Amino acid sequence: MTAPLCIGFIPLVDAAALIVAVDKGFAGAEGLDVTLVREVSWSNVRDKLNIGLFDAAHLLAPVAIASSLGLGHVKVPIAAPFNLGLNGNAITVSPSLHAALMEAIDGDRLDPMATARALARVVAKRRKSGAQPLTFGMTFPFSTHNYQLRFWMAAGGVDPDEDVQLVVLPPPYMVDSLANGHVDAFCVGAPWNSIAVDLGIGHILHFVADILHNAVEKVLALRQDWSEKHPDLVTALVRAHLRASEFIEQPENRTEVAQILAQPARIGVDASVIQRTLDGRLKVSPDGTMRESNRYLLLGREAAGRPDPAQAAWLYAQMVRWGQTPFKPEALRAAMAVFRPELFDAASGRPASAPNAIGAFAGPPFDPEDVSAHLAAFEIGRWKP
Amino acid sequence: MSAESSPKIVIVDESPIRAAILEEGLREAGYTGVVHISEMQSLLARIYALDPDIIVIDLENPSRDVLEQMFQVSRAVRRPIAMFVDQSDAASIQASVEAGVSAYIVDGLKKERIKPILDLCVSRFNAFAKLQDELDRTKHALEERKVIDRAKGILMKVKGLTEEEAYVLMRSTAMREKKKIGEIAQSILTASELLK
């Protein structure tokens, strides 16, 4: 018997496992009859999952946590048994901001501390000359993009709430907004950074892996009560997506995967742009400069799919650091409980792998048992002990 | 009407027809302060300038995520805005999401004043979807009619049939093959194109 399931997604490359699971039959092989529904906003994905129009969803990891804690919206506990991807975001800046940063930089341009300090100098210079504060686009208040931008610039001495403006922009509007000067930079997932570079209107300044060695990005999100009622479906979903993500990571499958993802009803952009992001080989400048990184986007390798509660704790700590919620030990525990490695292990049938360290470029190593130490380590933030 | 009895409502919708249907409905119900925004550039700045009590946005609009930023504590926002953060409103949320509309409410507005507005939005959105559906079906029927007429013409010419005989032939073929007459007509057009 096949189980009909409805899964919502946003057209981004890290929806790859969801799309490949359906289009290459991995979901069918697990007895799942999945209908994928393409959505236009994270708010829609969250709401349709919450009220049961979706059985599962491609969701920003921080939205899964915020929903479970009732931050900003209705409280609906979420279970995340599978990571749809680690990393995958990049920071892209306009040609003029890029030129200003390169003029101000003292050190390696791939070193996020050097670029963040350069940004602080650019910000100070602009303030002196009375110029408008720089504007950075990101995808959602509870987004990895928001926290990654903030973590990076604050390490260089830029206060993201005082010195610059952060604005929410839907990913499909990012490129236009950079082109027409509405924003000076943005942090977004694939393929939008590459599209800006191809159009000659942006430079990729950083891969997110420069800022955090391993950063959970999107999760397969289920309502917790649904997951408790349907343990067999949870197992089948995890297995289908684990297989799909491993299929995607085989270099010989990449061309086929890029073509599947490129279809108009799926991501709907050129297959070659998608393949670059899967290969981690990106054009970073309109002059054709390439940059390669095996950490750009991790799907089915290095146990990327296994949820790590320490990652949830890190995201919760960012919500606290930036004043989205006061620190509460019970909320920290609830945030960590959203990530369900035991469901992943039960479905994969593999021995539990050691979690990947977050590996931030600034501050002490992150300890989920001591979030206060993490918060106290940074000068800039809205958190008060 | 005083500000107390007529909250300021902003409609964010890129479809001018749907926005007009909604605006008309709200005005008929006595809500006079209705403003429509169709341009998504600088959406937040425009909303802050209008300072509405209620914002209505269609769910096909990616800018819904932009509105979520209003929940954040920020110097730019005068009053926090929340969309039915009460669990008891699950049914309202479900009805509005299914209709394809979402509403954001400024904190402090009483629930009993919001409910009729949201209900009206939901029914107008559903009415628009029904209209759209009817329009699509009419368009489809017209197109099918054209295809059938052209196929009839081909049969009349090639087989020397009268108009009625041509139609009866297509209809009986459709019944025999358990297909729609439009599909049979389309196959005739395709075949005649290939045999040209």
Can you tell me about this structure?
- The complex is a heterodimer of chains A (385) and B (196).
- Helices cover 43% and strands 17% of the residues of chain A.
- Chain A is built from 18 helices and 14 strands.
- In chain A, strands 2-1-3-11-4 form a 5-stranded mixed sheet, sandwiched between helices. A 5-stranded mixed sheet of chain A has the order 8-7-9-6-10, with helices on both faces.
- Chain A is globular.
- Chain B is 58% helix and 11% strand.
- Chain B has helices spanning 16-28, 43-50, 64-68, 90-99, 111-159, 163-176, 181-194; strands at 9-12, 34-37, 54-58, 81-82, 101-106.
- In chain B, helix 1 (16-28) links the parallel strand 1 and strand 2.
- In chain B, helix 4 runs parallel beside helix 5 (111-159), helix 5 (111-159) packs across helix 7 and helix 6 (163-176) packs across helix 7 (181-194).
- In chain B, 30% of the residues are buried.
- The model of chain B has no long low-confidence stretch (mean pLDDT 84).
- The A-B interface holds A 40-44, 47-48, 50-51, 53, 70, 72-75, 139-141, 161, 167-170, 172-173, 182, 323-324 and B 40-42, 44, 59-69, 71-74, 83-85, 87, 89-90, 93-94, 97-98, 102.
Q: Could you provide a short overview of the structure?
A:
Chain A has 385 residues and is an alpha/beta fold. Chain A is 43% helix and 17% strand.
